Amino acid sequence: MRLLNSAIITTALLASGVFSAPSPSPDLDKRQTTSKYCDAKSSVCYLQVQTTSLYPIFRIAIPDVTSTSFDTLLQIVAPVSLGWAGFSWGGGMTLNPLTVAWPNGNKATVSSRWATGRLTPSVYSGATYKTLSSSKNATHWAIEVACTGCSKWNGGNLDNNGINTFAWAVSKTPVAQPASSSSSFSVHNNVGTFAADLTTAKVPQSVFQQHIKSP
Question: The domain that contains 146 carries what CATH number?
């Protein structure tokens, strides 16, 4: 595994609401760094973003295809101090697919959500997930999922040949029912956004498909 092609991007806070921080951390005013993270075992290289050790690492990969609708890969590696972590594919809380994950025993659970306003996001059937791996140890919990429906949605889509804005949110409070993907969860403690060129997240289609077929 290796890191390469480091780039600097500017962060910003989301508007107020469930995915906006009541008292934002000063860490979120610092620059976030994107890089490439390559898994030698799978040969998948991800676009990676990390703010500080207090917040999750998010990794994205997409297949190198011309279609505007394609599966996506998302890895979340979060410190055990966090009760849940959310990822927005459209760069904000509302009207785009939201991936929310949380620890569940010695693994993690993923939930597909959608918000039409500044309320707890509802369960969303427009995006489906396959969990490729999940785990929890003394310091971190982690999950990797393949998503169908996160690249194109009613009202928007990812630009697989250009810059996209993504957003994330975290909470220190555990969810109500960790084993249920429809569990309720509390308001976040912190949020952030970042911009990234998805051409740096592209993986050869054959490698991508082989990876999401396993296990």
Answer: 2.60.40.1210
